Amino acid sequence: DTDLDIRAPEGEGPFPAVVLVHGGGWVGGSPELMGGLARFLADAGYLTVNTGYTLSNGIAGFPVAVDDVACAVRNAADHPDSDGTVTVVGHSAGAHLAALVALDTDVYGTECPLAEPVIPDRLVGLAGPYDVARIGPLIVPFFGVPPNEDPELWQAGNPLNQVANNPDLSSLIMHGEEDGLIDLSFATDFAEALSSAGSEAMVEVVEGARHNEMHHPDVVGDLIVTWLERD
Q: Which of 107, 114, 113 is nearest to 64 (CA)?
């Protein structure tokens, strides 16, 4: 289900757009998980597009789930209230998908009814696992095959290998201090790789935050808005 929940702020547009991508281990979750953050960002003046995507339940999620998110990005940029800029914000598995779309070079979303590719301006990763080689069995349903059977597929779906594709990208890689599920090194290694490839990336460790709190507006909302408004 790839329905889009779109919220426009009060007042006169156009507004910068934000696409939100939920977590759930690639096999579960729904846009409702990001609903609170979507409302918070809409109240802060952002056109929010909270997207679903094809879950890896009996069918491989790659590349269809990434295509779904890329199509949501196109819809966000094309919306009549949008100023054409897009930030993609993902939590956990959604941060992995968001990173692939943010580093996309016209690979994803080709079946989208909106033909024009859109490359996001910014990425906000929340508690994301960005190196699929380190995730192991958890992500096998997403690819549909283990890495030794199709190493090229796993390479293509690994954001850590795509860091040089969009040097204009600006990234905020956020991680909860008390995550417990995803190690902080996923965030620091990814940000370092982005920076080495010539794009701007910063890591923000959120004090006391657990993995499943990293999409709560009271935990991350102000930090995201401050970063988006810093220009």
A: 107
Distance CA 159, CA 149 (A): 19
Whole-prediction pTM: 0.97
Which runs of consecutive H residues, i.e. helices, occur in the chain? 35-43, 64-78, 93-102, 140-143, 151-156, 184-196, 222-228
Q: Report the distance separating Cα 68 and Cα 66, nearest Å.
A: 5
Average pLDDT over residues 103-114: 90
Q: How far apart are the C-alpha atoms of 188 and 91, rounded to whole Å?
A: 16
Residue 171 to residues 137, 163, 199, 210, Cα–Cα distance (Å): 27, 11, 8, 21
Q: Residue 231: what pLDDT?
A: 63
